[in-house]
Write a structure and sequence with these properties.
Strand content: under 5%
Shape: rod-shaped
Helix content: over 70%
Largest sheet: none
Oligomer: single chain
Keywords: Membrane, Transmembrane, Transmembrane helix
Number of helices: 1
Transmembrane segments: 21-44
Length: 45
């Protein structure tokens, strides 16, 4: 098992980075969409 863990440790680091990037992109997208909806609501009330 230890040999397998050493083999996949690089993949795990890459996976963690990808998860963080996806999380941040999702958060930013939600803020932008929410902010955009607020602007439209104010403009077209």
């Amino acid at each position: 098992m230890a040999a397998d863990d050493e083999e996949y440790s690089g993949f795990n680091d890459t996976r963690q980075k990808r998860i963080k990037v996806v999380a941040w992109v999702t958060i930013i997208a939600l803020i932008l969409v929410g902010g955009g909806a607020t602007v439209f609501a104010l403009l077209f009330g």
